[in-house]
Amino acid sequence: AAALSLSLSLFSCCPLTLSFSFFLLLLLSLSLTHSLSRQCNFLQELGTRFATVGMCEQAVTVYLKASKVKLAVDTCVQLNQWDQAVTLAKLHNLPEINTLLAQYASHLQDSHRFLEAIELYRKANHFVKSAQLLYKLADEVTRERRHPLRAKKLYVMAAMMMECYRSERKKLTSQASTTRYLHDDVEQPEVIRMLDNAWHGAEALHFFLMAQRHIHEYDVKSALRVAIQLVDYEDILPAADIYSLLALSSALSKAWEYTSKSLARLESIEDLPKERRQALDELAVKIFTRHKPQGSVFNMVTCNSCGQSMSDCQSTCPSCDTKFPLSVATSQPLVGRHLWACSFCRHQVHANDVASLTNCPLCHTII
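Above: the chain's sequence. Below: its structure in token form.
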């Protein structure tokens, strides 16, 4: 006991000689010659000494030797070694793992390391929390209006996390651990909404990029068909972007009815600058003194629900209100019966278009 006490006293001299590693080996060898209780007390005190001078790895080694896993994890947290803390907690099945994960994720977000926080939740199978962070990032990138492709990728990743959550929930439905696994997420309205609209943001950016691609290829009719569908995504995309794209594509297609409606909608935007509103007024006068706001450029198809005719740019039949899914390859409403559905995101395209595809146009799952 005297030798151990003397060894701890000598610990304060180590910073002068920088011989911590040698000293640690010496003390551990000394502790093995004493009783188990004395070893534990000695090792715990030694771990505290190491933690005091910021030597996390050495402190953890000593605490684990003394079977003080909780102290080892707490030391990692205090010294901001979050990776090691989470690893230890998972390895030893500590009940505080969820709290620790939340603290670590908060620490990463405060440090603006959002992708690391997302990856942390994903590895821990906390798919909903990972998706929430991804949706938040995607919304921010969308509002910046500079990187729509990056925004789409983030929305797709968020939707994939929700699909993983959905899959795990199905697997565990009949097991007793279901409630513990889901952490009561399924009872939260936000989680239900996220499950129901998992792909909504990805669809918005997908069709937005598709419309612009058609315009650059001067396939203006296809661009207009896609732009018409974007009206359903005002909760994701800025209204100014949607109706500017609709006005441009309809004017290029000479579908003046849509041009008139989109210009009127642009002028009704509350925070539109006065100069831009005046420019829109002048543009409308210039266009509609030459052209009447009427005319259609789309073909008619037969609704397979009621048999009535409808435009091939309409996703809802005006006669029976049947809503048809949109093809993620062409954005056309899928009113036919020969359809192909992605095995992962469950979005559909017409069977005739599958031959030209190697991946799902939306989630990029290999076909």
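The radius of gyration is 31 Å.
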